[in-house]
Please model this.
Amino acid sequence: MDSTIGVNMNRLDGKIALITGSGAETLKSEVLGIGGATVIEFCKEGATVIISDVFDKEGSEFASELKSKGYDVYYKHIDVTKNADWDNVISWIEKTFGKLDILVNNAGISMPINLFTTTEADWDKTNDVNSKGCFLGMKAASALMQKNNSGSIVNISSMYGLVGSPYSVGYHASKGAVRLMSKAAAIQLAPYKIRVNSVCPGMVMSPMQVRKKANISSEKWEEFVGFLEDSPLNKAKKEWIPTSQIGLGIVYLASDEAQWVTGTDLVIDGGQTAQ
Model:
């Protein structure tokens, strides 16, 4: 990946942001996931960013790389399924900065399986990370945000939280849950001026897709890619959506430009769900 990051636009200047699932890659990686791409976009906009993940080596290296470029970045370990991890990091943020302005619940997993091949363990793991992790994060972060009577929470759902597909039923269920809990939380947190929105990405070439390609047959991969390339813009552009485009959408929802936007879904899917 090109290590040139870009110009600071300052839309998030002075904001403290925690982004989960954002430390699995570094600037040396060929592909950055949505979390890593969002970290970079937040840095460009002037935010202080806390990278969090379970990949401590990569996350620490990513934070160090960005610090060396002059950005205010930290790394903290969070297994999003563990309430104690959330409590530890939120407590550290309060002691260090006195506030938390933005939470991006990005951590997520997917498995290349369908209804018939999904085990109970597969179901539990997918929903624990994708939906329970989001719930625990909102609960922990909003407790601190309430003290300042402001905040923005952005939860990463998926176009598969909107429509069905021939693939992982557990993933669909978890991402649908993320969308709807975001709407419920938006209503419940509005009295504290905390906004909650979800982002529904479409066909992005992320490390998750790279791993999927490595773990399924070439025939299954071609079937998967063929299905996703039904997206009008992906067809026209002949490329997958860059993860940086998802990061830019998250920047908007996190910023004061979206101060009247809450309880909604930002769909960035190249028009796939418009059909």
User: Anything to note?
Assistant: Residues 120-148 form the longest helix (29 residues). The mean pLDDT is 92. The chain has one domain: 16-205+242-268.
